[in-house]
Amino acid sequence: MQEDNSQVGMAPNLLFSNMSYEMLQGPKKNVEKDITDPQCTNKNKSEAKLQIVWKNVLIFIILHSISVYSIFMLLTFQFKFSTVIFTYLNLMFAGFGITAGAHRLWAHRSYTANLPLRIFLMIAQSAALQNDIHEWVRDHRVHHKFTDTNADPHNASRGFFFSHIGWLMTKKHPDVLNKGKNIDMSDVLADPVVKFQMRFYVPLVIVCNFIVPTFIPWYFLGEDGYNSFILCIGRYVISLNGTWLVNSAAHIWGMKPYDKNIKPTENKFVAIVAFGEGWHNYHHIFPWDYKAAELGNYRLNFTTCFLDFMARIGWATDLKTASEEIINKRIQRTGDSHKRVNGIEDHHHDEGEAIWGWGDKDMNKDEVLAVTRMTRQKA
Ligand SMILES: [Zn+2]
Ligand SMILES: [Zn+2]
């Protein structure tokens, strides 16, 4: 099992988690890079030999084949309408587990959630099967700190296919493992909800991602059990691809109004399919902003709509957002609102250390003071 270290954040990892290996046994022997050097990652090409994990390739081929079949069944009206509606709602539920939960809450600390909301988001995140919260957050923080370098798990410098799904079919670059071990995870590990999920992750995933979504349409909606299972897999694969587009398409195609020197872009299509996570140029500059965007409405940012509702009922507090002043300053300094950039050129990020979110010690002190923090009064 310990050879399968290819599975990281924004990815399914029920079967081959490498978390236990890294946590319990420390660094792998072949890791030799200087892990204290922030520039140790090269920008373009991989120095490490690409090692394909064929077992994962096979799993993804099977999953995608089933999902194509499920789409065919959908288009030929073989599912009950109520099953389709349920599946869409389930897609949103699991999606919020990733966007509002693993991403905006645990990875970036862009707001604070009370216990009921954290439990809800933990269950939703389990229903998405993209690694447990701890592992997801660790890899996502590394992605923000070392964006599009070899230490980035889904380094978009290596092309669309690699950043979308290829990275899940190959062993991790040594820089990813090195940097992953050094990233601050103390806040996440201090959360008992995260600890609970780590302990019971496999049964949670089996129940939340497979059994319940198959059982409900079959038992309550009168759907055929086989159909129900096929649509369950189809929904899972579609949600995976929606998430992966943030790593691939939103690092390649789109505008760069906030910082033209980085690869992440503003991509409306990704914003729609990933519930508001496509405003990625903005997000990489202000990762602690709970909206993960400056502009756009709820239709283009479902997750913000959900979080504003949670704030209204008092479950989400201390929602951080960037003031117009900070944003405009940044646009003037590094933005490029006129030129569409295809993302092929590899600019160096020279705006100091990238940060993973609220609480990162590299965060600019003036920026910390200028952040707008909101807590709504209970309705
Ligand atoms: Zn990104
Ligand atoms: Zn992020």
Topology of this structure?
Layout (H helix, E strand, L loop, with lengths): L18 H7 L28 H22 L5 H27 L4 E2 L1 H14 L4 H13 L14 H5 L9 H9 L3 H4 L2 H8 L1 H20 L4 H23 L6 E3 L11 H6 L6 H6 L16 H11 L3 E2 L1 E3 L2 H11 L1 E6 L23 H6 L1 E3 L5
Helix pairs in contact: 2-11, 3-4, 3-5, 3-11, 4-10, 5-7, 10-11
The site of one zinc ion has 7 residues, from helix 3 and helix 5.
Poorly predicted spans: 1-44, 338-350
SSE pattern: HHHEHHHHHHHHEHHHEEHEHE
Mean pLDDT: 84
> Strands across the major sheet, in which order?
1-3
Organism: Ceutorhynchus assimilis
Cofactor: Fe(2+)
Membrane topology: Multi-pass membrane protein
Protein name: Fatty acid desaturase domain-containing protein
Outline of the structure:
One of its GO terms (biological process) is unsaturated fatty acid biosynthetic process. This protein has 16 helices and six strands.
Write structural notes for this entry.
This protein has one domain (52-374). Helix content is 51%, strand content 5%. It contains 16 helices and six strands. The chain has helices at residues 19-25, 54-75, 81-107, 115-128, 133-145, 160-164, 174-182, 186-189, 192-199, 201-220, 225-247, 268-273, 280-285, 302-312, 324-334, 365-370; strands at 112-113, 254-256, 316-317, 319-321, 336-341, 372-374. The termini are far apart. The chain binds zinc ion (ZN) (2 copies). One zinc ion binds next to helix 3 and helix 5.
